[in-house]
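[[Encoded backbone]]
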Amino acid sequence: MGSPAVDQETFIELVRTLGPAKTAAKLGINVRAVYQRRRTIEARINASIVVPSHPQSTRIKSAEYPQRFITRIKDGVVLVGSDAHYWPGSISTAHRAFVKFCKDMNPVLVVMNGDALDSARISRHPPIGWESRPELVEEIEEAKARLEEIHTASPKADHIWPLGNHDGRFETRLAMVAPEYAKIHGVHLSDHFPNWEPCWSIWINDDVVIKHRFKNGIHAPHNNTLWAGRTMVTGHLHSQKVQPITDYNGDRWGVDAGTLADVYGPQFTDYTEDNPRSWRSGFAVLTFHKGRLLQPELVRVMDKDHVDFRGKVISV
């Protein structure tokens, strides 16, 4: 469907007061058209159109750091999935579980914490032999389908996507060979996923930071929170673990959310040379009570039909 048949000022006011979904319903159009026009207007006026947040949260885009989202959450759940590396024809157990938890837990915020795309064909790494890699358009269509499942399962949540290094390949390739296309719709990854807000980081209550990556190595979660001075939730390394640090300021947590992909999925077959991988498939659950983060929890894939969470085996 086309853009809403209302002037710019009316459109901005509708989105600010009703949000994208209710604006689309009021105007009788597809919500995707609302998101697309919203981005066009934001680029034109060089300002964000802030939408209503979940009742348990408030959300603004930082004026000082425009790629940072600042969020206040009093009570509620945040689901953090990372490193899905969505691959055509492959729907992982962790993804199915993530959709189920979106439906069951009524999250305040859903985060796709980077590397939703693998971007195999535009990798800086050369192909290994004659390995088969999907076309970029196939990856994008697969990611659209999977992310739409998540969005539909959590209609009341905010949906935010911190950029991952694999995601970044999309715009990096274009910027290198065709910089003159920078302001044309479609050259930015976010143009293809209008239901998700792009950023580099999310700050919750000023003491929890969610971003794709910071430090590397097997001690990254520990070092992330040590050096950040805040609880930090990352992905990138697929290791899925929670490591606490306690000092005079109290407890904080280094969290690796793991990977939403299958650990031995086709995305990783060739470049890992079939080596064993100390990775875990699953995602992270953050629960806030009266503005304070409780101990972060992990949902871990056990086999192709089950995950474990809070001492229970859950079918997905």
About this structure: Residues 54-315 form a domain with the Purple Acid Phosphatase; chain A, domain 2 fold (CATH 3.60.21.10).
